[in-house]
């Protein structure tokens, strides 16, 4: 059984990772870049993989050479570094870092947990090695409520793990046909939402609502096939009141009923997308649903009705990678390798920042009250917000 990758996501990431990786120093200090609008506070070394996490004192991030690094939040100085056992190409190098039960958890094909204070490895969850159905539990994003880790996989399974010791709480087999991956678990009360993609021709898929306590499937919404356009949902869902909002490869955004999974309404595909499929990351900020696109536009929608409120040209190429927000501003790495900040209420561009020393910003930033911690091909870049 092989691990499957969304073709659009891999194309975007491939463009980022072809850029020059910067020098080996752990930390470099910069002033304002000539073409930037934010002061760069520090850069910590290593080509970053996925979204970092912070506990307030430290920032934790994974790298494409299979390290997990903890740096001081204020200075960027390395506090500890550890390594996973993964070896390319059998890895995605982690989609994000989460913190739970005193552990820093990082997926690198399998799931690794390191002591938050020291970096000592605490546990590894590897279903193939542990006689548990499935594989690639750490290939994509994880989610946590502070005591349980939830993960999709490259084998069509969803896992719930005890964050303290990595023991399996439950496993749910959503599709075990050898050509299905499960992505982006999102916690909403007692429900866990995931997106599922079958790598058929064309791609198909569904959204599943799962009981977080026992792993049973509450409902699934299968997207209708409309060849040659794919019909697989992509990216994380956005729970909003009595709906779940999700983007599909057909370029439309769907509002699904939380209780039944039935479609309530949709927002249309952008007319300027070239090709059959679109990649539309979603996030909720300032009571606006913000959507990216493989076209150059960010679009704001009323999350109550799906009515378009605003759109703005990024000016920097496609905006199809995951978006971050502090609730007021949305932060979007784009196809040109720069990082843009946009007002969530109006879509107005606040600033565009280039990476230091020709580095490209990659998906996707961690935003705190005072700073933006942005992954790049040249290290983790701390920007004054």
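^ Assign residues to that structure.
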């Amino acid at each position: 059984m092989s691990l499957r990758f969304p073709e659009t996501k891999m194309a975007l990431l491939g463009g980022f990772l072809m850029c020059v990786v910067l020098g080996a120093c752990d930390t470099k200090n910069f002033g304002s870049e000539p073409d930037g609008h934010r002061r760069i506070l520090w850069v910590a070394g290593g080509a970053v993989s996925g979204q970092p996490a912070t506990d307030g004192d430290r920032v934790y991030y994974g790298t494409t050479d299979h390290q997990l690094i903890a740096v001081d939040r204020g200075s960027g100085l390395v506090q500890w570094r550890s390594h996973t056992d993964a070896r390319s190409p059998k890895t995605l190098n982690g989609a994000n870092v989460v913190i739970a039960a005193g552990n820093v958890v990082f997926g690198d094909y399998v799931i690794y947990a390191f002591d938050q204070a020291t970096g000592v490895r605490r546990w590894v969850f590897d279903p193939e090695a542990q006689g548990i159905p499935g594989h690639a539990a750490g290939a994509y994003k994880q989610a946590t409520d502070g005591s349980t880790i939830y993960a999709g996989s490259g084998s069509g399974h969803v896992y719930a793990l005890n964050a303290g010791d990595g023991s399996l709480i439950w496993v749910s087999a959503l599709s075990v046909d050898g050509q299905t991956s499960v992505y982006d678990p999102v916690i909403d009360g007692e429900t866990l939402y995931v997106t599922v993609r079958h790598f058929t021709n064309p791609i198909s898929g569904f959204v599943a609502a799962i009981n977080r306590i026992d792993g049973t499937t509450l409902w699934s919404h299968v997207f209708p096939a409309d060849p040659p356009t794919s019909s697989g949902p992509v990216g994380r869902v956005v729970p909003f009141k009595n709906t779940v909002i999700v983007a599909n490869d057909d370029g439309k955004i769907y509002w699904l009923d939380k209780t039944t999974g039935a479609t309530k309404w949709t927002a249309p595909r952008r007319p300027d997308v070239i090709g059959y499929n679109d990649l539309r990351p979603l996030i909720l900020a300032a009571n606006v649903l913000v959507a990216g696109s493989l076209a150059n536009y960010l679009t704001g929608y009323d999350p109550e009705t799906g009515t378009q409120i605003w759109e703005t040209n990024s000016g920097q190429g496609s905006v199809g990678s995951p978006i971050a927000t502090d609730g007021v501003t949305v932060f979007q790495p784009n196809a040109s390798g720069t990082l843009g900040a946009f007002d969530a209420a109006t879509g107005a561009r606040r600033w565009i920042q280039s990476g230091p020393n020709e580095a490209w910003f990659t998906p996707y930033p961690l935003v705190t009250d005072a700073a933006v911690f942005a992954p790049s091909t040249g290290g983790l870049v701390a920007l004054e917000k």
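Residues 7-17 form the longest helix (11 residues).
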